[in-house]
Design a protein that fits this description.
2 domains; Endonuclease Iii, domain 2; 208 residues; 61% helix; Endonuclease III, domain 1; mainly alpha
Amino acid sequence: MDYALTDAGIKAQLDIVAAMDPDIKAAIKAVGYPKERRKDCGFESLLRVISGQQLSVKAASTIHGRVEVLMKHQIKPEVFMALEDEALRGAGLSWQKISYGRSLCEAVMTGTLPVDDLDSMGDEDAIAAITSVKGLGRWSAEMYMIFSLGRSDIWPVDDLAVLVGIGRIKGLEERQKPKEIQVWGEAWRPHRSVVALLSWHYYSNPPL
């Protein structure tokens, strides 16, 4: 797998964007380069995405850790499917996320979602395959594409921190709409993933 979002890859790509965009250049100077945030590929990573939907990083990590304990750290679809709903609910998963988790298991076990083949697919084909699973929307697919597959040109315009972060980088007081940010992103192709990483970094580490 050609993982483009290593520390060196992030820096190289952001330097290319910064040479064309003075606001990006200024943001890097203010907060530095974002760090690599690589995650594993496959079922476990997608299950983690489901567990973490609409939760803080800390809360998501806690709940997923409890689920891993229930699964005796054998993070496989068959093991998840064998667990009772009540046990999963006790670990902190909502009833809806339990349903989503089971849908993911079924898709992986039946081959409807060929997790091992996602890396060889084009960006939109891989996103379409992931979003065919109940509970995995485009945002979830984009997180997997960036952090697990390391794709370099993913632009998650529905992510709140990207909307706010890029707006701050551009010196705007009002939050921009996804459609507006989508248009802006065209100027940063084929390096939009690193701009998203910078937006998250800027959002979390606002300059004084």
